[in-house]
Amino acid sequence: MTGSLASRFVLRRSSSLPPSRFLFRRGVSLPATEKTKEAFTPARGLPAFDHTPTAYSGISADEILAKRREYLSPSIYHFYKNPLQVVEGKMQYLFDEKGRRYLDAFGGIATVCCGHCHPDVVAAIVQQTKRLQHSTVLYLNPAIAEFAQALASTLPGNLKVAFFTNSGTEANELAILIARLYSGYHDIISLRNSYHGNAGGTMGATAQSIWKFNVVQSGVHHALNPDPYRGLFGSDGEKYVRDVEEIINFGTSGNVAAFISESIQGIGGIVELAPGYLSAAYNTVRKAGGLCIADEIQAGVARTGSHFWGFEAHGVVPDIVTIAKGIGNGIPVGAVVTTPEIAKALTRRNYFNTFAGNPVCTAAGLAVLRVIEKEKLQENAFVVGSYLKERLTALKDKYELIGDVRGRGMMLGVELVTDRQLKTPAKDETLHVMDQMRELGVLIGKGGYYGNVFRITPPLCFTKEDADFLVDAMDYTFSRM
Predict the structure, then answer these.
(1) What is the DSSP string of 50-102?
(2) DSSP H helical segments within 216-300, as ranges?
(3) What does it catalyze (predicted)?
């Protein structure tokens, strides 16, 4: 499926539906006056998919929204002017309460890697739930031991000791604690534009004001972001490392506890690090007595395609790896994996987590690893992700509104700007395109400090046909702006 969407798909509208409901139809080109006469059919034009959603009989979207406003925290927000109600998912697709199918190119924020409700993962969860839903790590259970061993087998070097958590934020909190205990130092270096969580320590390591409250966040220094698109030194990784050296020399006692970095910044807008940066930064930090923490919560678990872990593309081996999101395919599970020596730092006092290593969650994690291997999802992420990036790059050549296309595998970003020279963020345009693509049946995320970057992080079972539909929907939307 190539070429402009407008030449092959027709917008059709029904008098019984809102005027913003759209439909693709192949192979027809009608005059504008005729387009409004056609009937609307949901999800026409999406790649063929053999699944019929269960009829929904629950409360309406308006009722859910009213209950959210009354009973849930006002900090919880939603995408789209008219919030989308999702009631069912199957592989790379989601369904609303009316049975309409959507192509999910956001994957629950880079979380659903095997596909929604993948039968193997569901079976593992159900079987474990029937047998034992929860006990405690104070007793022995095979689920946690087998998952820990399987997870260690995917990591390089001596990274083989895991402590399981419930989320990525919790994993990063624990990693920072371990680094401080092991090194004996307090200072942490992270990158500007990074996101590592929203608890006490991780909020300090996060370096975007939109995610930081006015609370004490001590001992963290934020280095220049080695951003090839917006960074001060472009793609010159070595120059950015000098800032890490200066932070150590002038902002600390000369020793640091750790350096923490994502291999591709996720919430920051799918920002790849400048070539050569991570390796040089690791060397600099280790000379100052610090440990190197790889935040793989979004970029890990085969998502980048070329490697199972994002940091591997940089030729480095971290001291600590934090993992979450994709490893559970939607089940809340995270992990901190480090070396046996570093892991001993937690034995100086009691450290415990009631739900860490829950048998249902670890059974799900093991099933995820097995599905990735059995279905060759890492290879698919590379092949389909590369194809998708090529098609998105072609759109950049077509529309001045696209300032940059970046990322690897199934972790891609498209940044919109109103001026390519000034790189002026196109915030309103980003929201408009998101809304229109939702109407066409495609769900994508957004991120970046200015909220002008499309985050494309679909399930790793995404196909080339799905990629074509996504890009053609984006092409069609841009062509009508």
Answers:
(1) ---PPPP-S--HHHHHHHHHHHS-TT---SSSSPPPEEEEEBTEEEETT--EE
(2) 237-251, 277-287
(3) glyoxylate + L-alanine = glycine + pyruvate
Please, are residues 48 and 1 in contact by the beta-carbon 8 Å criterion? no
Those residues whose C-beta lies under 8 Å from the C-beta of residue 399, and which sit 6 or more positions away, are 478
Q: How many whole angstroms separate alpha carbon 290 and alpha carbon 292?
A: 7
Q: Which long-range contacts (CB under 8 A, 24 or more apart) does 123-132 make?
A: 123/367, 124/363, 124/364, 124/366, 124/367, 125/331, 125/360, 125/363, 125/364, 125/367, 127/363, 128/359, 128/360, 128/363, 128/364, 129/360, 132/359
Token representation of residue 327: 């490893």
Give the separation between CA 353 and CA 80, rounded to whole angstroms.
37
CA distance 104 to 114: 13
Residues in the chain with pLDDT < 70?
1-44
Q: Residue 92 corresponds to which tokens in the numbers above?
A: 């790379």
Give the pLDDT confidence score for residue 42 in this predicted structure: 37
Q: What is the pTM of this model?
A: 0.90
pLDDT, residue 34, reads 35
Q: 332 and 165 in contact (C-beta within 8 Å)?
A: no
Q: To which residue do tokens 């730092």 refer?
A: 345
CA dist 204 and 221 (Å) reads 9
pLDDT in tens, 40-93: 333 458 999 999 999 999 999 999 999 999 999 999 999 998 999 999 999 999
Pairing relationship of beta strands 445-447 and 453-456 according to DSSP bridges: antiparallel
Q: Which residue has the tokens 């841009």?
A: 478
Give the tens place of pLDDT for each residue, 414-458.
999 999 999 999 999 999 999 999 999 999 999 999 999 999 999
- With a CB cutoff of 8 Å and minimum separation 6, the contacts of 330 are 108, 111, 112, 116
Alpha carbon distances (Å) from 183 to 191, 245, 394, 480: 20, 18, 48, 57
- pLDDT reported for residue 45: 81
